[in-house]
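Batch manifest, entry 17 of 40.
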Amino acid sequence: MIETEIFRALADPTRRAVFERVAAREMSVSELKGHFAVSQPAISQHLAALKVAGLVSERREGRFAYYRAEPKGMAPLLSWIERYRAFWPERVEKLKDVLKGMNP
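Output type: structure tokens
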């Protein structure tokens, strides 16, 4: 399931931070490396996992690879969340009732 790959990719805090950086703008591996206390090969591994999950795309220019967020990569995750949206209003109402019954 693609949602599993997305969750797996975003479960790592460094990988999430890498994704957030490339979501802001296209960046090369060396540019990304400057923002993290990990090696360049580690950044490349994080980008590879994000790419497998469909969350980033790669553009080659000579020897350099540039990465950017792939908005359509989040679609399966958004669909997964949408399936559970129907449960939220009922749960929020129950939470409100519990909170009202608590002593101030």
